[in-house]
């Protein structure tokens, strides 16, 4: 059941992200100083003197930009970056893990060392350092993120490949003259598919949070691109004047990552109960 | 056991060397260090001055060896920004980070362990499922957002806790809570799963057959056996916290090495960056090793092998 | 004489087919009753039911289940008081039945302290006495050892000692010798007989091995698919088996010189 809730949440967010600009033709970049810091609609329910209106359902930020439009625009940044980063990370990890688990021996020793090194690296520090030196472009963020999130995929791929390559049907394939590539593609990869999918959902959540953290610190995509992390950084400056402003992007992040977690958990339970 | 540990020690050392190479390469290759240090908008002559002053014209391997050999003997260089030995700066700022990380970990354990025990005591109950939900929500919460929420409530709205600084114990409460929530999910899941596994064992059935009350079966017989993965995870989490508290320390303006790292990165203070990354890796490696030793000691089958 | 009496015990697991479907038996102190059957016959479940150790999801009912005057099915009865103190149980696999992270001294003493309280030294003396009694050499030094440092046969003796720490009236032994080698099996069985006589234990023996039954049991219940197909004194049943299944079990015991026979699922015997 959690699977459906998770998928539903994610679908809604993704749909909003994709269709947002058409559904809500309000420019997330349009500034209107006269209308700045208007609270969201629910403030009107408690406070008769409130300036909230349906004009700006989630209020406006300190430059008068419509918050709802910005949150939706933020989804268009955080979601794709998260997906791509997680996808690349899992691919890298799987490649390393399969190679280590299949060829073993010195290949495994070398690759395991690489994995150990990656695990010992402080992710946040390295990400911050590279982006501050290389600049906060899309490709730098994605590459840095994927290079820091591949470890789980690698470890699991390695273990499972080792187990799978012990199975009889793999040995038979080898005896029958199948090339290594064929074996990996036809015998090993299908066995890894479910596990990698689960790991993808985990890293998706991590990637989204990583990008948000970097943007929060000012090292993500440069403004005015309304990444949720950046919105939170801006909201932080208004924490005294308009404390509600931190709520919206934060909840957006929370819901999105929560949805990925639900999906991942549901997939995992499904895996376990299968014969 | 000792053979295994020696091997781990050698690997750990090799890992540290690999990391030192990586971080040195990163800070010196990503951008011309002379430009990075001189800053944007520096003139060509400024840049040349910086290059000469810090020895950037020497070859990369040469500079790496200088740095690495010095670091091995405890000399981590001189900070570009503060013109003081990096080691001294780090030693000054380390206690805050240590205090913060320990607080976070202790809190996380204090919540996770009892909760897992209760969940194992009544499997399938509301409490058991709530534990899993708690883990899921806790890992979905962006820690920096939670920090802001807490600040807006505790400091802005109610004014009961200070929003920044790291002077008194009150300053550690909010960041400690955020850190605990960050570290909790894996601890919660692993302890719960570990206990569930252990409870299927034959010796648990024996313990019950002896007439021991269920709480004793759990707390004495089950827990000790389920602790092994918990120790490893706790050590790893501590390692992460020591290296990654940048976010929290900047939000709460705490005077630890996380904040120091942020200052160093913003100011292209390369020696400090290199030193902190190396130090974080060292903590992680040392803690993993410690966890292995602790686990070996906990299990008499390994200890007396 | 205290009796352990069971009437009409039924155990189900949610499905329609009961694991145990109305068995009745009684044991007196100083006597040995064996329940013999193949795996899946429900014999282990029967013994677990007595101790109140049925797995989750099991439903149990019985007309009678009493230890002397005590109704074991009553909700007011605290089984944690009974287990280890009045009724004890030992299991099949001594390798996994002892907690690997605690010394055997710790695990022995804990039973005593749980039910009797008092000083650890009293518990320790009792542990040493019993270890000695069950034939574990160097008892005092053994207390500080861990389970993995002892052989299977020694561990099973430790289990027996542990069961006797609080002088129980009844001992349930679920396949106590199955995981042991043949010579050790005989030693352990003889030990159980001795202890039964010395301490006046009522012994309920669960086994699939007719040889074990022959060696130490006085009465036997043959169990098949949740019911007793035959009960009676061991000598009688072995000499004059009334039920076809009993006969098949007896016939299936391999004898040197005869061709091997197999027991098929439908009950027929093939050559």
Number of strands of chain B: 0
> From the coordinates shown, what is the CATH architecture of chain A?
Orthogonal Bundle
What do the pLDDT scores of chain B average to?
A: 86
Structural class of chain B: mainly alpha
Overall pLDDT metric of chain A: 83
Strand content of chain B: under 5%
- The number of helical segments of chain B is 14
- Please trace the helix and strand order of chain A, writing H or E for each element: HHHHHHHHHHH
The top level CATH class name of chain A? Mainly Alpha
Largest sheet of chain A: none
Contiguous uncertain segments of 5+ residues of chain A:
none
Give the CATH H-level superfamily of chain A. MetI-like
The radius of gyration of chain A is: 23 Å
Specify the overall morphology of chain A. elongated
Largest interface: A-B, 41 and 48 residues
Could you describe the 3D structure shown?
The complex is a heterotrimer of chains A (275), B (305) and C (271). With 275 residues, chain A is an all-alpha fold. Chain A has eleven helices and no strands. Chain A has a single domain (2-24, 65-273), classed as MetI-like fold, CATH 1.10.3720. Chain B is mainly alpha-helical. Chain B is 78% helix and 0% strand. Chain B is built from 14 helices and no strands. In chain B, helix 6 (126-140) crosses helix 8. Chain C has a single domain (3-243), classed as P-loop containing nucleotide triphosphate hydrolases (Rossmann fold, 3-Layer(aba) Sandwich). Chain C is built from ten helices and 13 strands. Chain C starts with a strand and ends with a strand. The mean pLDDT of chain C is 88. Chains in contact: A-B, B-C. Chain A binds chain B through residues 113, 116-117, 119-126, 128-130, 132-134, 205, 209, 212-213, 216-217, 232, 235-236, 239-240, 243, 246-247, 249-250, 253-254, 257-258, 260-262, 265, and chain B through 11, 14-16, 18-19, 22-23, 26-27, 30-31, 36, 132, 136-137, 139-142, 144-145, 148-149, 151-152, 156-157, 240, 243-244, 246-247, 250-251, 261-262, 265-266, 268, 273, 276-277, 280-281, 284-285, 288.
